[in-house]
Amino acid sequence: MTTIAIDIGGSNTRIGLFPALDAADYMPVAKFPTQQDYHEELRRVAEALQSIDNAASSGVGVSVAARIAKNGRSVVAAPNLPGYVDQPFARDLSARLHVPARLAHDTVCGLLAEKTFGSLHDSERCAYLTVSTGTGAAIQLAKGAITLTSSIEIGHQILDGNQRECLCGQVGCLETYTGGRQITLREGRAPNEIADAAFWDIFCDKLAQGLVNLAMLTRIDAVAASGAIVLNRPQLLEQLQQKINQLDLWSPLALLSARLGEDAPLVGAALLTETPEDTILH
Length: 282
Ligand SMILES: [Zn+2]
Fold this sequence. Notes:
Layout (H helix, E strand, L loop, with lengths): L1 E7 L3 E7 L8 E7 L4 H11 L8 E8 L2 E2 L6 E3 L11 H9 L3 E5 H12 L7 E7 L3 E9 L2 E7 L22 H4 L1 H8 L9 H22 L3 E5 L1 H4 L4 H12 L6 E4 L6 H9 L7 E2 L1
The structure holds zinc ion.
The site of zinc ion has 6 residues, from loops.
């Protein structure tokens, strides 16, 4: 049986077909700009999969750049895709493609991929961090046969003394320093156009605080980092690790590069189809 995987990002949608789930290898099926119109997106997905024999597929897993309802069946918050909110997404996909459909936040999918095939393979308490338009994360805590994976709002934790207003409405969120959209609004240019060392020093200070807070609250010991800002700035992780080491004197927190790169959400979407629903806190 094959598995259909769909990665619905804020900018692009990618579809892949996985012949098996014991490897991260897949056949690319389609890539197109993510449609703001929900029904048009469904139509484009179904069209791309027209020639695929769905009867030979065990299901479809979908990674979405959005917060998912607790029951895993719909989108409840999506700053980039407002037209998707509260639509019966899993049911509509299942009806169009004639296979069971599962949804998860892209950070949950990224984590599943890095845990199974990537840099988090050996960690029982770990996180996946994406530093891009926003700052998102998921954590996984495991012991023996019990595993819980949860999407968390790392970017909207409040940092002491931060008076900046966040796009979410709170004052003091980490993301006012680390979110690509907020940086662009505040600085008047995109993060990849900023070379100023002082800017990146503060960026790393704030993100290190956020990650050490996360480690203290959850006792995770490894973080796989990805997202455009990390991928565009190779020296960032080393600088960030140094800041973490200065702050976190109790137990080491290892910052790792996400091995699957931009494929992580797609690979994780495929893995989602065989991940028990009750092990995921959306
Ligand atoms: Zn916020």
